[in-house]
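Work package 3, deliverable 3.1, input record:
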Amino acid sequence: MISNLTPTHIHLLLNHFPTIGFSIGIGLLIGALISKSDDLKKAALTVLVAVALLTFPTYISGNAAEEAIQNTPGVSKSLIDTHEGAALLSFIFMEITGAVSWLALWQFHRRGQITSRTLWTVAVLVVITMGLVTQAANIGGEIRHPEIRLATESTTVEGPIGRDLATWVKAVPWVWPACESLHFVGLSLLMGVVLLIDLRMLGFMKQVSVHALDRLIPWGVLGFGLNMVTGMVFFIAAPEQYTQNIAFFWKVGLMILAVFNGLYFTVYDKAWALAPGDDAPPLSKAMAASALLLWVGVMYYGSMLPFIGNAF
Amino acid sequence: MPFVLTIFLVVLGVTALVGVLGYLIDRSVRRHDRP
């Protein structure tokens, strides 16, 4: 049965996560704002980061689902493109919400509190994102459920922006190579910070305090964000290069594990109090070693996209 | 504008933007750090 698993199955499984997961996150956030409980705040923000991360495979598996059904009788290609545009807009807001939520969690671990400005920024973003996700989910449902379709086909203000972006990237010759260069800039930022912190945890450079290295983490996250944006430009412009590419599946899978590892490390791990000369606890070392393996795996499968898979 | 110059300027501009953003976050971290 597992051998029959396709990206379409993954889309059908994951497409409920953004709406349901975000609803749970909002409920926890409201509870946290009313009760002022730090534990509830952390739980709400962790749920929001996790949902933002899971929205990534939800989005990309959607293109595989499109390829599978776009020629089916009764399925509207223009409705699929409208759904893709709505999904892209909600994906962008979802990732911004996830990034600010992570920043709030990181603030908490570093300062012992989350500023109310950060928390209210998350709250505003959550409301906007929830509206966009609901719209995308509803149009997605209309593709295969005629019973919920309106008399006229649904449209959105933003329209099929995913296809518009793809046309632009393909028409303007400098966009792809510029994004390739920026992808390497992001990779260098991210891997530079990952190597410094994980090698310190494993026992290298023990004279450096972990707290000092912790300040570099936002730089690594910025590198990851840059790669997320440029990577999505590649994917949206040429999804057919990736949706059937086994190396891409491995890259995305390892990346999700690596980010969850990073979430644990930057929010919950106790090793940040280590003074210069201190040895990290065994669990922190195991997490550091696995982070290095996961990120090297992401880079390996990223560079193998044309060789193991079918890209380019 | 020549193709290579366009790419160079775009990459330089976006990298500078990321640098400024990183600097602003780092400055905020430095100001609010616990002693």
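The radius of gyration of chain A is 21 Å.
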